[in-house]
Specification:
The chain has about 90 residues and is mainly α. It is about 40% helix and about 5% strand. The chain has a two-stranded antiparallel ribbon with strand order 1-2. Strand 1 and strand 2 (about 60) form a beta hairpin. Helix 2 (about 25-35) packs antiparallel against helix 3. The chain is globular. About 5% of the residues are buried.
């Protein structure tokens, strides 16, 4: 797409330090629940968020954030960032 022809004048490229690691699960789930009502899908997303990580060979539960490298993490980040445009 040619955004300039559509009237867009600015492009923002930013790196939000610690973004993926610090998105509150409650915020993520609240935003996802606005669009999805299927309980199985919501439960799967919640399990994904709470799956934990391995640090220094030890399991660490996740209490916030979207796991980096996860297949739906980019989608989750876009859902959260989209709310800034509203």
């Amino acid at each position: 797409m040619d955004y300039h022809k559509q009237g867009y004048k600015y492009v923002v490229d930013a790196d939000i330090k610690g973004f993926f690691d610090n998105i509150p699960h409650k915020l993520i789930m609240g935003l996802v629940e606005r669009e999805i009502s299927d309980g199985k899908t919501l439960n799967t997303i919640k399990k994904f968020l709470m799956a934990g990580v391995i640090e220094d060979g030890k399991f660490v539960p996740t209490k916030s954030g979207a796991p980096q490298g996860g297949v739906i993490s980019p989608l989750i980040s876009n859902i959260v960032l989209y709310t800034l445009l509203l």
